[in-house]
Automatic annotation (TrEMBL), chain A:
Residues 140-154 have a biased composition (Pro residues). Signal peptide: none annotated. Residues 187-197, 222-246 have a biased composition (Low complexity). Residues 177-186 have a biased composition (Acidic residues). Residues 74-122, 136-264 are annotated as: Disordered. This is Cell division and transport-associated protein TolA. Keywords: Cell cycle, Cell division. The lineage of its organism: Bacteria, Pseudomonadati, Pseudomonadota, Alphaproteobacteria, Rhodobacterales. GO terms for biological process: cell division. SUPFAM superfamilies: TolA/TonB C-terminal domain.
From TrEMBL, chain B:
This is Tol-Pal system protein TolB. The keyword ATP-binding does not apply. HAMAP family: TolB. One of its GO terms (cellular component) is periplasmic space. Belongs to the TolB family. Residues 29-135 form the TolB N-terminal domain. InterPro entries: 6-blade_b-propeller_TolB-like (IPR011042), Tol-Pal_TolB (IPR014167), TolB_N (IPR007195), WD40 (IPR011659). It is found in: Periplasm. Keywords: Cell cycle, Cell division, Periplasm, Signal.
Length: 362, 441
C-alpha cells in the first residue's frame, strides 16, 4: 500500500516537474496564417472578371450530329439441340390384371313412386310404457347438510307498490297459449341430523322413480289457423309484435345505487330556480305547472320538455307558465347540470314543479 | 319489556332506512321550486329588414318604437344591437339560435318593412330562442306610412301577447284633463293622446272647468263633467267629430262621476240632491233614470264589473269613506274595505280579478289594489297626492294622477305595474289629471 503511494508521488512529482520546467522553456512562436498576394495588371484583372461573368444566353446552339451507327445483323439461325440422354428405368415384369369382381349378387333397387305428401312423423297414440325398476342404485335426494329444527314454509316475496299505474291486461282468449312445461323439482330436503358424504352408503339400493330411458316428446299440435281479415289482421299482428318487442326493453327498472343526497337535489333546484323568471303580476303567476324531461349523462336535456300538470288559471295562463318553466330548464342547463354521473339512474328522468304562490303573495 | 323495546327500536330503524330508499328509487326525480327571480326578460329586436328602397328610416323607427313599448313595461329588457353577434339581413333566412343564445336573448323579434307609395307593410316573427322555435306564426300588417306608430304598437302588442300570454295595451289611447298655468289660474281642457303621450289632441277649450273624462267600451265616445252652465253636468262627446251632448239635466241637483256600463248602453252616475248623493243608472240616449242607492250618505264613484253583474262604489254610510259592492240593479251592498284610512274612486279591473282604489291614510295618498272581496290589499304607490286610477285594457298597468305639494305643485300622469313595480311618469307636455284608458284599438 505504501509502495503505491510512493509510485504515485514520484509519478506526480515528475509530471509536475515536466509541466513546469519542460514546457516553460519552449518558446516557439505561434503559427501565423500567411496569405500570398500577387500584383496583377489591369488586363489580367479584366481577364479575371470576364472569367467570372455569367455566360450570356444564346440560342446559337449547334445541333449534335448523330453518328451513323454501324448495325450488325445478328445471326438468327437456329440449330436443334442434341437430345439429352436420360437414364432408362430398369425393366420390370408386367403385373397381372385384377380379377373382375362378381356383381351377380347386387341388384339395382326398383324405382318407387314418390308421393307429393311430405312425410309426417307419426305420433304414438299412447305414451310408451316405461318399465320402472323398483330400485335404483342412484340416490334420489341428497340429505341437507344443515339441521332444520322445524319445517318452515317459504316466506312470501315482498310486495312493492309501483308508482306508475299500469293498466290491467286482459288474457288473450283468441289464440291458444302454449304453457311451458315446468318440471317439478324435488322439495327442499331437511333432515334432523347432519349427514356428510362420508356417511353415505353408496351400496344401499334406493328406490327411485327415474325413468331408465328418455321419452321422445310429443309433436307440437298443429295450430288452428285464425280467420284473418287481410290488412287489419296484418296490422294488428304487426302492432302486437311491435308491442311485444318494445315492452320488454322498456320495462322500468329500479335504479340501483344510492339516491341523490339532499345537497345534490338542492344544487339542482337552485340551478333551475336561478333561471325561473316569474312575472308576479301576470295570470301565469296563478298557475303551478309540473314539467317532465330527461337528461343525458352530461346533464343536458334530451328531447322535449313536456307539460305534465297545470293547476290554476286558464289555458293561456297555463301555456305561459309552462313556457317560463321550459325556458328556466333550458337556459340554466348551459353545458349540462352538474349531477353525479354514478347516480345517473336516479336523475335521468326528472319532474319539476314550479309553484309561484309564495312569490305572488309577497 | 326490554325485548319488546328492542324489537320496536329495530323496527323503527328498519323503517327509517328503508323508506327513503323506496321513495328515491321509484319513478323520476321530483323537485319543487317555489323561488324564482323577478327580472325583465331579455330580448333582441334587430332593426327590421328594409325590403324596399326608401323604407330604411321607417323600418328603423318601427323597430325602435317596438323596443320602447316592450322595454317600457318593465317586463322586458332589450339587448342592444352592439351586443348582437349575428344580424338579420333577410326576413326569410333561418335564425342562428346559437348566436342569440350566446347573448342570452330569450326572445327574438325579426321583421321586414316595405314601402310602396304611401302604403306601408310590416311583417314580423317572434322566436323563443332557447326552445329554438317560433312563438305563434308570422304576421303581416298593412297601413299607411303616416300611421307607422300605430303599426309599431300593434306589432308590440302581438309580441307582448305571445310572450306573456296576455293582451297588450300599446295600441291604446288615454283621455285626460290637460292642465296648464299656475295653480291659482289653471286652465283645464279635455285632451286625448296615445298611451305613451304621442299624438296629443285637445277635445275642448279651456273656457269651462272639465272633470273626470271616461272612455266608452268601444273608445269612440267620452263621458265627462263640465261646469260650463255653472252647475256640473255630464256630457257625451264623440271623439271622431268632437260633437257633444248633455247626458242628463240636473233637475235641481248636480250630476257627476259618470262611467259607462260594459255594453256601452247605459251610464252610471252620481246625483246630488238636498245634501244627499246617490248612484243612478241612465240610458246613453237618456230616458228614465234608475236609482240604485238610497239613504242619507254620499254614494258615488260607481264602476261596473267587466261582466256587468256588479258595481263597486264608495260610500260614507259607515261613518268613513269605504268601498262597497252591490248588484247591477242596486240592492244590498257589501263592504269590502276594512283597512285604516279612507278609500275612494274604485275601478274594477278589465280582468275582473282586482279593484284599484285611492287610499288616504295618515296624511298620505296611495294607489292600491285588492281582490273583489276585499282580500289581499296591496298599496302600490305613496305620495303627497295620488288619486284617480284607471286600468290599462289588459288589466296589467294602472295610470293615475300625482300632484306635488305647494302652491307651485303640478299634476302629472304616472303609471305603475299592478305588481307595484315600474312606476314612471308619462311623457307629457304640461300637466295632466284624471286619466281614462281606452280599450285596445
Amino acid at each position: 500500500m505504501h509502495i503505491g503511494h510512493y509510485i504515485s508521488g514520484v509519478a506526480h512529482t515528475g509530471l509536475i516537474g515536466w509541466v513546469l520546467f519542460g514546457g516553460a522553456f519552449q518558446s516557439e512562436p505561434p503559427p501565423l496564417e500567411v496569405t500570398g498576394v500577387s500584383v496583377i495588371t489591369a488586363e489580367e484583372y479584366q481577364a479575371v472578371l470576364r472569367a467570372q461573368e455569367a455566360p450570356a444566353p444564346s440560342t446559337d446552339i449547334a445541333v449534335p450530329i448523330i453518328p451513323e451507327a454501324e448495325l450488325e445483323t445478328p445471326d438468327l439461325s437456329s440449330a436443334t439441340d442434341a437430345p439429352v440422354e436420360t437414364p432408362s428405368p430398369p425393366s420390370t415384369e408386367a403385373a397381372e390384371p385384377d380379377a373382375t369382381p362378381d356383381l351377380s349378387d347386387l341388384t339395382a333397387p326398383e324405382p318407387q313412386d314418390v308421393t307429393e305428401e311430405a312425410p309426417v312423423l307419426l305420433t304414438p297414440e299412447v305414451d310408451t310404457a316405461v318399465v320402472v325398476p323398483d330400485v335404483s342404485p342412484r340416490p334420489v335426494v341428497r340429505p341437507a347438510p344443515r339441521v332444520a329444527p322445524q319445517p318452515v314454509a317459504q316466506p312470501e316475496p315482498d310486495v312493492t307498490i309501483d308508482d306508475e299505474v299500469r293498466e290491467s291486461t286482459e288474457p288473450d282468449t283468441a289464440g291458444e297459449t302454449q304453457e311451458e312445461v315446468v318440471e317439478e323439482t324435488a322439495p327442499e330436503a331437511a333432515s334432523t341430523e347432519i349427514a356428510t358424504e362420508a356417511n353415505e352408503d353408496d351400496d344401499a339400493p334406493v328406490a327411485s322413480a327415474a325413468p331408465t330411458r328418455s321419452v321422445r316428446p310429443r309433436t307440437r299440435p298443429v295450430a288452428r289457423a285464425e280467420p284473418s281479415t287481410g290488412t287489419d289482421a296484418a296490422v294488428a299482428a304487426a302492432l302486437a309484435e311491435a308491442g311485444a318487442e318494445e315492452s320488454t326493453p322498456n320495462q322500468p327498472t329500479a335504479p340501483s345505487g344510492p339516491p341523490l343526497t339532499s345537497g345534490e337535489k338542492d344544487a339542482l333546484r337552485v340551478s333551475v330556480q336561478n333561471c325561473w323568471v316569474v312575472d308576479v303580476g301576470s295570470r301565469a303567476a296563478d298557475v303551478t305547472v309540473t314539467v317532465g324531461f330527461s337528461l343525458d349523462r352530461d346533464g343536458r336535456v334530451q328531447g322535449d320538455i313536456r307539460l305534465i300538470n297545470a293547476e290554476g288559471g286558464d289555458e293561456a295562463a297555463a301555456r305561459t307558465a309552462f313556457q317560463s318553466a321550459r325556458r328556466a330548464v333550458l337556459r340554466c342547463q348551459k353545458t349540462g347540470y352538474e349531477l353525479p354521473v354514478e347516480k345517473y339512474d336516479h336523475w335521468r328522468d326528472i319532474e319539476i314543479t314550479f309553484n309561484p304562490d309564495a312569490m305572488r303573495r309577497r | 319489556m326490554t325485548r319488546l323495546l328492542a324489537t320496536i327500536l329495530i323496527g323503527l330503524m328498519g323503517l327509517g332506512m328503508a323508506a327513503p330508499e323506496a321513495v328515491a328509487q321509484n319513478g323520476p326525480l321530483r323537485i319543487e321550486i317555489t323561488e324564482g327571480v323577478i327580472e325583465p326578460l331579455p330580448y333582441a329586436v334587430p332593426d327590421f329588414v328594409a325590403e324596399t328602397q326608401g323604407s330604411n328610416q321607417v323600418s328603423k323607427d318601427i323597430s325602435r318604437l317596438i323596443a320602447e313599448d316592450l322595454s317600457g313595461t318593465g317586463l322586458f329588457r332589450e339587448i342592444p344591437a352592439s351586443a348582437h353577434i349575428s344580424s338579420i339581413t333577410n326576413f326569410g333566412s333561418p335564425v342562428q339560435f346559437a348566436d342569440w343564445k350566446a347573448i342570452n336573448a330569450q326572445a327574438l323579434i325579426t321583421g321586414g318593412v316595405s314601402v310602396s307609395g304611401n302604403s306601408l307593410e310590416v311583417k314580423f316573427r317572434v322566436w323563443d330562442v332557447f326552445a329554438g322555435q317560433e312563438l305563434g306564426s308570422g304576421l303581416r300588417f298593412k297601413g299607411t306610412v303616416d300611421g307607422w306608430r300605430r303599426m309599431a304598437h300593434k306589432v308590440a302588442d302581438e309580441v307582448y301577447s305571445r310572450i306573456t300570454g296576455e293582451g297588450g295595451y300599446f295600441d291604446s289611447r288615454v283621455v285626460f284633463v290637460s292642465e296648464t298655468g299656475p295653480k291659482s289660474d289653471r286652465k283645464k281642457r279635455l285632451a286625448i293622446m296615445d298611451y305613451d303621450g304621442a299624438n296629443l289632441q285637445y277635445l275642448t277649450d279651456s273656457s269651462a272647468i272639465v272633470l273626470a273624462p271616461r272612455f266608452s267600451p268601444t273608445g269612440d265616445k267620452v263621458l265627462y263633467t263640465s261646469y260650463e252652465t255653472g252647475f256640473p253636468e255630464v256630457f257625451v262627446l264623440d271623439v271622431g267629430s268632437v260633437r257633444r251632448n248633455v247626458l242628463s239635466t240636473n233637475n235641481g241637483g248636480m250630476s257627476f262621476s259618470p262611467r259607462f256600463s260594459p255594453d256601452g248602453k247605459s251610464v252610471l252616475l252620481s246625483v246630488e240632491s238636498g245634501g244627499n248623493t246617490d248612484i243612478y243608472k241612465v240610458g246613453i240616449n237618456g230616458g228614465q233614470r234608475q236609482r240604485l242607492t238610497s239613504g242619507a250618505s254620499i254614494d258615488t264613484a260607481p264602476s261596473f264589473s267587466p261582466d256587468g253583474s256588479r258595481i263597486v262604489f264608495e260610500s260614507d254610510r259607515s261613518g268613513t269613506q269605504q268601498l262597497y259592492v252591490m248588484g247591477a240593479n242596486g240592492g244590498e251592498a257589501t263592504r269590502i274595505s276594512f283597512g285604516q284610512g279612507r278609500y275612494g274612486t274604485p275601478v274594477w279591473s278589465p280582468r275582473g280579478d282586482l279593484i284599484a282604489f285611492t287610499k288616504q291614510n295618515k296624511g298620505r295618498f296611495h294607489i292600491g289594489v285588492m281582490r273583489t272581496d276585499g282580500s289581499e290589499e296591496r298599496l302600490l304607490t305613496a305620495s303627497f297626492l295620488d288619486e284617480g286610477p284607471t286600468w290599462a285594457p289588459n288589466g296589467r298597468v294602472i295610470m293615475f294622477t300625482r300632484e306635488t305639494r305647494g302652491t307651485d305643485g303640478v299634476s302629472a300622469l304616472y303609471s305603475v305595474d299592478v305588481s307595484g313595480r315600474n312606476l314612471k311618469r308619462v311623457k307629457l307636455n304640461g300637466g295632466g289629471s284624471d286619466p281614462s284608458w281606452s280599450p285596445l284599438q
